[in-house]
Amino acid sequence: MQTIRSMFNPKCSSDVRLDGKTAIVTGANTGIGKETAKDLAARGARVVLACRDMAKGEQAASEIMREMNGAKVVVRQLDLGDTKSICMFAENIYNTEKTLDYLINNAGVAICPYAKTVDGYEMQFGVNHLGHFFLTFLLLDLLKHSAPSRVINVSSTVYAMGKIQFDDLNGDKDYHPVRAYAQSKLANVLFTRELAKRTEAQGVMAFSVDPGIVNTEITRHIRRPLVDIAKIFSFLIRTPAEGASTTIYCIVTPENEMFTGGFYKNCARADSCRAGEDDGTALKLWAASCHLLGIRWR
Ligand SMILES: NC(=O)c1ccc[n+]([C@@H]2O[C@H](COP(=O)([O-])OP(=O)(O)OC[C@H]3O[C@@H](n4cnc5c(N)ncnc54)[C@H](OP(=O)(O)O)[C@@H]3O)[C@@H](O)[C@H]2O)c1
């Protein structure tokens, strides 16, 4: 069983150290984000746990510090569904961090009933895409200043089912939880492609990642019978640490072996499907996101 598991769940075997580096991980209080933060801290990085709920964040930080003597982790409040919170978070980062080497846009909400963010965007599009788009926009100067630096957007292979509904980005006319999730994950892939083009010359690389099927709290909105059926295929279901492997791979792999703008899974570059390579849609999404957020990002 262990051999079958390892066939389906490749691990990042690199022992690269990250002493002196600084990383931000969104949604770091649980699941894949917490394991990503733990791995980075074990490599010596200073890690900012960007969490919506400070109590949960402090709990995760205590766990990491208990497991690792001398781990450099701090918790900062960030609600990706609230642009004021994102602004305050970014301001705090500029006040406290001299450099930012890795921005890991990991937080996510999946397949939830229709809901809106504080700013009135549909929850999955608002948190998974717009929140991270805005956060990256605000932190880009620091990333450029710290170059070579990297942005990792945690997407999902579900993106291949996605379509960007430009006439109904917020699902006001027709909302389907799975469709909205797939749209948000496609947006992660398209944002990565466009960001990579715009920042390559300044030494900021960008990658999108599929963590695999991972046993986390992400299933909180998914109906019980479906979750139970999935357990039959338990050899395919990854632990949160295994789910963090491809993100870590995208951080520690040498620059000359990485393709900025690329989609990665199973600790390797993966073919992206046509929807994920549509540069016209990527550009249109960029413009629509700027318009919704009221920002100029050329
Ligand atoms: N698990 C999988 O099988 C799977 C597969 C493909 C892709 N992914 C992607 O992997 C990423 C991590 O998911 P996970 O599986 O680790 O899920 P998880 O255990 O549910 O963790 C999600 C994290 O995102 C945070 N979050 C949600 N809404 C937020 C907001 N408005 N502001 C700030 N943080 C917020 C959560 O905070 P709270 O604890 O406060 O809610 C939590 O820390 C997501 O982007 C997900 O789409 C997961």
Automatic annotation (TrEMBL):
- The keyword ATP-binding is assigned to this record: no
Q: Which InterPro entries match?
A: NAD(P)-bd_dom_sf, SDR_fam
Short name of any one Pfam family annotated for the protein: adh_short
What's the domain of life for this entry? Answer: Eukaryota
* Keywords, in A-Z order: Oxidoreductase
User: Acetylation as a keyword?
Assistant: no
Tell me its family: Belongs to the short-chain dehydrogenases/reductases (SDR) family.
Query: What is the name of this protein?
Result: Retinol dehydrogenase 12
